[in-house]
Model the fold of this input.
Amino acid sequence: MKQFALASTIAITALTLLSPWLLNGAPYIGDSWIHLKKAEEIMSSGRLSLVEYNDMWPLVNLLLAFYSSILNINPLISTQVIPFLASLSALNLYIIAKEVSKSWEVGVASGLALAFTPIYTFITFGSAIMKETASLYLATILMAYAISNRLKYPCFTLLALGLVLGHHFASLAIAIFLATLTLEDFLDSLAGEETEWAKSMTATVIYGFFASCWTLYTVFKIGWFAPIDLNSLTMMAWVWLGSYMISRLSKTGTLILQSVLIPLVFLAWRGHLHAIPTPVNPVSIWELRDLLVFSVPALLGVASYWKRRKLRSFLISTTALIIFSLTWSLDASGLVIFTKSLHYYAVTLAIAFGLSASFILKRRFGKMILSIMLLYLILASATGIMLALDGPGAYHQGELLQMKALNNLLTDRTMMDVKLGYLAEYIGLEHTSFHRPKLGEYILLTKTDYTHGVLLGYVWVKLSTLLPQETRKLCDRVIDGSYVKLLRTNVI
Amino acid sequence: MSSKYVLRMIFRGSGNLKRYLIMLAVFEAIFLSLTTAPAGYLNETLQLIPKPSLWASLNPPGIEVDYSYLEIRNEEFLIISSPDLSEATKLLTGRKLKLNEVSIGCWLRGSKAEEYLRSKWGHVTTLTCTNTFLDYSIILDRSIFKQVSKSSYFKIYLRASSQNGIAIPSAWNLANDLVALVRLHRNLLSASLTIILSIICCILGLRSTSDLREIIESLEEVHIPRSTLLLNLSIIAVGTMLIGVLTGYGLTSVITPLALIYLRQTLGIPYIYTAPSPLTMISTLPLALISLTCYLVPIVWRFARK
Done:
């Protein structure tokens, strides 16, 4: 039963994360095209260049090149290794939750809760081919390894090196986690408990050394990058100290903080907190219901296992990250940091949700209630997943083919949004970002520009804001593909 | 080795030192939240309000502006003039106005004042609206002004920037005054919080003595002298105080912005994050030192009495 449940969890998570590829036939999120191009360059030149931002954390590029070479598959197909590895994080969560609770059911519930959390649509992160996603598996395995009693320095060093080369924010998240774990171990040893704080401290020092060296090297190569600057790191240290104090002192304080934080995180994820131009629908009662089904058990999990320093370490480090992101800024740049922090906060909440399973299972019809809850989470997330599959971050095979075909026809610089811009960069199409069109200028629009809006970085705005309906009507429709439409302005 | 032993004993005791740390941290957080958030808000507001580009003073240098009041059928009207009227009005309104010997602000069109002036001097020019007090004033040529005011008038000097004098617009002044007011309240708050914290720490210190007696007894069994205990205790207490202050600062960094975000969401109050500067933390150290003294005094007193 245990093996079956675990295998099913991993299979469901993998299928969910691979769904953009399986249904749309193209990788998810624009970053995919950047890393695909980088991987192809590595394969063709046989060299790894460290020049710009997307080179400096080369794990994702190397993974794509490596799997494409050893499996002898098209690099485009090899992109799916990243979501697959991200889906294996469910296994790491299983290990973590089992380590904390000593119950396999808790592990399975945590794994599923990660993939189907109503706090956000996990596939928008897990299915993407990004540095962050490629690092998730390593980040979660490092967390699992650090709390296990079988920590061996050579293996830890190898994992730490991989993560440091994976992504700066993931490195930061794990650095905070390791520091918290060490402090927790030390304070508990002072209180007379048996802990391996010296081991945790050595691991933290090893990790800190690699992370600092690589960060300094990166700063030397490309300059400072958010949120790695002196001001932000100082601010983060204070927030961490505050979160630590609240979470360490009392269970009540921890629960109050989390109860305050979860609604804020939800509102921020739904776009109600940050000053962004994206049109936002009001939160529906059904969304609140989904949130309650997830957050109430998660709080119950926190309350039940608050005394375990391993859970507290997860809670304190990720809570500090998410509070930092909310206090850092509430504009579009703050949204970027918030989204990155949310990935790690969601991991903790998924573990906390899973931990509530041990409480539920002790009750009458516990197994049935837990199964219904998990099934409910899967079904509730299905709506979000379906929306994301056709959302502004989703690419379709048709889009790729039509853009490739255009590459041979278009010689002029074409105006397009960030989504198509990523793809254009990959296929080598000359392009400019959205601006007030000039006479005779080409504008390339894709299906999601009409259905959702024009993607501008992390936010999107209605197409009519940038290109009013009247202007569009007066444009020549040069190509009218099922996905991609090419317009030429003739009246301004 | 003995310090580690003492540290363990103290942390494993009934926790009065821990309670002292928590008390200090919580007080520090309350203090910083209460004192830095409102003042920070006002400081941020000051950043939003443009600094005045115009200052008024009773003394030169500057463009002289003369003003007085003209009574017309039991109603008083402000009359102004200047040796350099066009420059003065330009400074006041930001643009050049087409003035005549007798001009009135746009809000005086059709008023008793216009009727009176027209009957006396014939031609009266009505100015376009400027959204300043000039819209309600009568602007006169210097010779007419002296004649009307009967040489009983006030002088004021306008200049573009100054270290003294009254700044215009007044919103900036108001915000500045509010900052000063909040600073005064902060000082009062600081004094009252110091007194409360000192009393609490004194009580905690008194309570610690019973714990210490137990610790001394157990330390005597392992032949650690009482002086070593006192020295270690002082070091630990100072360390605890510093940790308390730092943690309080951390608590403020968590509680204040979250509370402000909630206020924005529920009451629509604009969110301006006002992180207290590290200097603020240093300025709270005297408060912490007083509390530490209050904590240690009863302990030392009990020891000395024995």
Summary: Residues 52 and 222 of chain A are 6 Å apart (CA to CA). Chain A touches chain B through 27 residues (CB under 8 Å). Chain A has a mean pLDDT of 90.
